[in-house]
Design a protein that fits this description.
The structure holds 2 protein chains of 2 kinds.
Chain A (H helix, E strand, L loop, with lengths): L1 E10 L2 E11 L4 E6 L5 H8 L7 E6 L2 E2 L5 H4 L3 E4 L11 H7 L2 H4 L5 H13 L15 H14 L4 E5 L7 H18 L2 E5 L3 H7 L2 E6 L2 E6 L1 H4 L2 H8 L4 E5 L2 E5 L3
Parallel strand pairs in A: 3-8, 3-9, 6-7, 7-8
Antiparallel strand pairs in A: 1-2, 1-4, 4-5, 9-10, 11-12
Chain B lengths: L1 H27 L8 H33 L11 H15 L5 H25 L7 H23 L3 H8 L15 H12 L1 H8 L2 H6 L4 H23 L5 H13 L3 H26 L7 H23 L2
Classes of the chains: A alpha/beta, B mainly alpha.
Chain lengths: 252, 316
């Protein structure tokens, strides 16, 4: 379970996250939506201890992220931010194996290897496992990073724009996999998403942010409405039901 | 890990063979008569060992630097490390001329660490970290530090000393005057003990934090290793350019950057390349010698150019 209490981040006089208090239940898929600059990534970064909070606290499974040793938290919480491109040239298998580092500290046991093999299989990466990261496509690299976080075997996983650089097929595939990780493996996944329709079709709960504040939290039925989206994004949209899913038309 | 480790073992065997051949060549090549066992024991063996230790150390320092800075074009001589170490040697020689060489080396390690930390600090402050501007910043930083050294040395009549640290040369290595370099081997083993952590640091700060590493501590330890290896090398053999640049890039191409696997290859290839350059330097104008740093500059510069063009052609 993830909880925040009055979580705030300031840069000088600018407040990018403004007193956010949330309780996100375990074993669910939570999407964070909002316009650019709404504070989504900053919120996620503070929960994942990549960014210190200016005020307030964040808890993962009851552990205060600012006070818990990094290696303890690394066994509870997996995080993945937008890929920054330049990185060490390692094979996909090695990258995924590094996901076991919080548990194995470099000495992989048979159980660790099983986790690695399982994560590779789950993301369909076995044929590519011995390729270097810079020899595969952006989508495959993205999947490799997700596999690493899954191999880490943490209850909670935070993802910042996991669909970046993915085409329609791979984006849908990725969301399906994440959904399965929640349903079949009981993970808690919190993802910043820009595609409102993916958020609507796959989430248990959506957190809508604007100007650093949480505007609304709830299941897609409550959030994906013309009124809420007008408030969040400041544009007029049309919500239509497609196969029972609330779908947003906003293209013209 | 099946295929790369099998491949790695193959390369390791090949590297070991090549290394042995080069070491043998280094023992055999020279003006003196080999029937004189004294020459082997006093000059050739120490010189060969010095080359192996310095080459391996500088290559290992290079790959650590590249992973920590997340840039393929940095190494101690393009990150301000080497020039800062030289400044330290100069200052301690001025202030305490009679200090034992270990003390001088420690001073050099301290200034090298400060210079490298400054380089990384400047890097983090840079809004746009383009691939090629990173080493340029390091070279400029090194230039400023080097200019300070030259000024001080000029005013204190120490230019000749400065030259011995700035130019890599092992022709004066004799028994009793290279043993400090074994420290570099110790440091290389320490780096190996940190292999996983350094590789993870090479994946970036976010990945390191995610995996529970104290990123700042790992980076600090890693640059302390780089600074110490550089200081030891400069104190005994002078600045040896390009080994730390070329070798890690070549090894990365064939075996990747997972240091637990690639570090022995990096060390072996670094030793081999330096041996090759020194043997060449002894043969080109036989019976005279060209300093190994000079040969390395030419060979390494050429290799680096090839690598640069290849990398640019190979990937976006």
């Amino acid at each position: 379970m993830i909880e925040t209490q009055d979580l705030t981040r300031r840069y000088g006089d600018t407040v990018v996250v403004d007193g956010v208090s949330l309780r996100l239940p375990a074993r669910s898929f939570v999407s964070i939506i909002g316009a650019n600059g709404a504070g989504k990534s900053s919120l996620l970064s503070m929960v994942s201890r990549l960014l210190p909070a200016s005020a307030g606290r964040a808890f993962v499974d009851g552990l205060d992220v600012a006070a818990t040793p990094g290696d303890v938290l690394a066994r509870r919480l997996g995080i993945l931010r937008q890929e920054n491109g330049i990185a060490a040239r390692v094979t996909i298998r090695d990258l995924v194996a590094f996901g076991r580092y919080p548990h194995a500290k470099g000495r992989l046991t048979a159980a660790d290897r099983a986790h690695v093999a399982d994560a590779l299989a789950f993301l369909d990466l076995e044929p590519l496992a011995d390729r270097f990261l810079d020899e595969v496509s952006g989508g495959q690299r993205q999947r490799a990073h997700i596999a690493m976080v899954l191999a880490q075997d943490t209850d909670c996983i935070l993802l910042d724009e996991p669909l970046n650089n993915l085409d329609m097929r791979h984006a849908a595939g990725m969301m399906g996999l994440l959904r399965r990780a929640v349903d079949e493996r009981g993970r808690t996944i919190v993802a910043v998403l820009h595609d409102i329709n993916f958020a609507s079709c796959y989430s248990d709960r959506i957190v809508a942010m604007r100007d650093g504040k949480v505007v609304a939290v709830g299941p897609p039925e409550e959030i994906v409405t013309e009124a809420v989206l007008r408030e969040v994004y400041g544009i007029e949209v049309e919500v239509v039901l497609v196969r029972g899913y609330r779908t947003v038309f906003f293209y013209r | 890990m099946r295929r790369p480790s099998a491949r790695g073992a193959g390369y390791a065997l090949l590297a070991l063979l090549a290394l042995s051949a080069l070491a043998a060549a280094s023992l055999l090549v020279g003006v003196g008569d080999l029937r004189d066992a004294e020459i082997l024991a006093v000059s050739r063996v120490p010189r060969t060992l010095a080359l192996i230790l310095a080459g391996a150390g500088m290559a290992v320092a290079g790959v650590i630097m590249q992973l920590v800075a997340q840039n393929r074009f940095v190494e101690p001589s393009t990150a301000g490390t080497a020039d800062s170490a030289t400044l330290g040697m100069l200052l301690v020689t001025l202030l305490a001329p009679d200090a034992p060489v270990v003390v001088k080396m420690l001073a050099a390690a301290a200034t090298a660490l400060a210079g490298t930390a400054l380089f990384l600090r400047v890097l983090r402050a840079m809004p746009l970290r383009e691939r090629l501007t990173v080493p340029l910043v390091g070279i400029m930083l090194g230039g400023v530090v080097g200019a300070a050294s030259t000024f001080i040395a000029y005013r204190t009549d120490m230019l000749q000393f400065l030259g011995t640290w700035q130019a890599g040369d092992v022709s004066t290595v004799l028994r009793g005057r290279y043993e400090l370099l074994w420290l570099s081997a110790v440091l290389t083993f320490l780096a190996y003990a940190m292999a996983d952590r350094i590789t993870i640091a090479g994946l970036g700060r976010d990945a390191s934090v995610n995996l529970g590493l104290d990123y700042r501590r790992v980076v600090a330890l890693a640059i302390a290793l780089v600074a110490s290896i550089t200081a030891v090398t400069i104190a005994t053999a002078g600045t040896i350019p390009f080994v730390g640049l070329v070798v890690p890039n070549l090894v990365s191409l064939v075996a990747g950057d997972t240091l637990r696997r690639s570090l022995p290859l990096v060390a072996g290839a670094g030793a081999g390349l330096l041996l090759l350059c020194d043997v060449l330097g002894r043969l080109i104008r036989y019976p005279f010698e060209i300093p190994v740093g000079t040969v390395m500059g030419v060979v390494g510069g050429g290799l680096f150019l090839v690598l640069l063009l290849r990398r640019d052609a190979g990937r976006a």
